Write the structure tokens for this entry.
Amino acid sequence: MSLDRGKWATAGPETVAPGVHRIPLPLPNDGLRAINVYALEQPDGLVLIDAGWSIRESLTVLEASLIGLGHRLHDITDVYVTHIHRDHYTQAVELRRRYGTRVHLGVGERPGLELLTTLRTDVPVTSLDVLRRGGAPELAARMAEGYGEFDASGWEPPDRWLHAGTVPLRHPLEVLPTPGHTRGHVVYRDAGRGLLFSGDHVLPHITPSIGFELGEPGLPLGDYLDSLDLMTAFPDTRLLPAHGPVAASTHTRVEELLDHHDKRLAETEDALGAGARSGYAVAERLSWTRRAVPFGDLNDFNRMLAVNETVAHLDVLVARGRATVSEVEGVARYALTG
């Protein structure tokens, strides 16, 4: 039985299929509440899907959860990570330091990881560039000041870069690249048992941020929508997400997400209206989150996400021929076609 919106984060380990255990791990002051990692029993130990944020509380909960399942941390032989974000990747690196655990990551994350270790900053440099292009330089300046000293400890390369293909486990996993949330995001599909370890690509209650990473922004929302469509090319599966409870149908949630973005594109088009506007000006005319919060009531971090999401939707409108864009002194100005 699927857990409700609150209990999934605090109820402890949940066996979601024979030999497959969902383990929610705490996050530091994070609105996502927790991250699910999945422990898969193998003949020679355990494999994890994602690993959590490398903080003491997370490792303590992971250890206690595994002991309750009859295992120990040193039983983890491999971690297959869905994407490079800190709450998914950094504890995998810590497990490797302590126990020699092998770490696997989608090859599409390689440019971002290399740029991160070169720039050595937690500042979301690319997102701030999008803010400036979106007409929000003051917000970008405030955000740049809000990050402390860079912690490089969790940002080592993986043991193996993953390409599309099959992981030969007891129950084989198909690696499917799903760019959008990040360029190198992958999901792991257990076709034999009808399970999808979806990371942040398909979440049951929220829509993931798009393109929140280092590197050239490209067209992340277009990539994300294509990656959602890809999920419908396969038979339906149970949805095992990184945040939120397990759900019965991946296809149902994908259809909801596609419908959401269709509506959001229409709302963005309406908010653009007559004349030329920046992404920031359009974002101010939209409401945010499921609660329809006005832009002015958001904190700076969520304003950054809102402007970046608005720019992503505007760029898709341009790609679809429904809007045009021109740049004046580094600020993109969007206008409706026709």
